[in-house]
Amino acid sequence: MPLPTAPAEHVERALCVLAHPDDVDFGSAGTVAQWTAAGTQVSYCLVTDGDAGGFDETPRDQMPVLRRAEQTAAAAAVGVTDLHWLGYPDGRLEPTLGLRRDISRVIRQVRPQRVLTSSPERFYERIGASHPDHMTAGESTLRAVYPDARNPFAHPELLADEGLEAWTVSEVWLGGGPHPNHVVDVTDVVERKWAALMSHVTQVSHLPEGQLQEFVGGWMRQTAKDHGLPEGRFAEAFQVVHTG
After folding, report:
1. pLDDT in tens, the chain (244 residues)
2. Which range is the signal sequence, renumbered to this chain (predicted)?
């Protein structure tokens, strides 16, 4: 049987696995807002606490606490209340077996039909999307989706010690990559995206008023234009991969 050529119209559960607090909001908060409004239960898995981020003299030992609180508030702005934190060091992610296991654990806990993550491919036209942590989180998540989470013999301690049965994810949405094949018009929920982004005070409070919306909105409007949407629309784009 051939694989689908379009994403499912609706899923019961979705999991977003991203490297840092705010990654999901810059790239996908509008899409997530649409999913939750349609009744999909969305969970977040944040691989790091974003402890290497920020633009002021906030002590480094305070940053993880602040950024967890900011991401929790941002998630609530788009209808998400289930957050999982892996606690890896910001800026030093590597695609280890331990990271694959930890993401597989969350997949088996949440049991999502859809997983959203960062593209593991470098995007040379917009290099900022290809932070090494983003690429590592995306590659590790893909390895967790296939084959780890679905294979009962992978990371056997997840089943033997924690009772987590194998789970197959049907589709993966990759953001920030060079090969998008699906666009989501988020114009009707863009204010919720702005609210989510503005929750990340440690990351955006240094910007003049309106600059964040102008900057992010500019490439969202360009994304919409590139994918044939009408003038002035806001869009988020993804590469949707069906896992078979």
Report:
1. 777 878 999 999 999 999 999 999 999 999 999 999 999 999 999 999 998 876 667 777 788 999 999 999 999 999 999 999 999 999 999 999 999 999 999 999 999 999 999 999 999 988 888 899 999 999 999 999 999 999 999 999 999 999 999 999 999 999 999 999 999 999 999 999 999 999 999 989 888 888 999 999 999 999 999 999 999 999 999 999 999 8
2. none
The DSSP 8-state label assigned to residue 178 in this structure reads S
202 is in which domain, residue-wise? 13-242
Q: Is residue 160 included in any domain, yes or no?
A: yes
91 assigned to some structural domain: yes
pTM score of the predicted model: 0.96
Report yes or no on 82 lying in a domain: yes
CATH number where 202 lies: 3.40.50.10320
Render the chain in DSSP notation, one character per residue: -PPPSS--S--SEEEEEESSTTHHHHHHHHHHHHHHHTT-EEEEEEEE--TT--SS---TTTHHHHHHHHHHHHHHHTT--EEEEEEEPTT-----HHHHHHHHHHHHHH--SEEEEE-SS--GGGGGGG-HHHHHHHHHHHHIIIIITT-TTSSTHHHHTT--------EEEEES-S---EEEE-GGGHHHHHHHHHT-HHHHTTSPTTHHHHHHHHHHHHHHHHTTPPTT--EEEEEEEE--
Domain membership of residue 3 (yes or no) is no
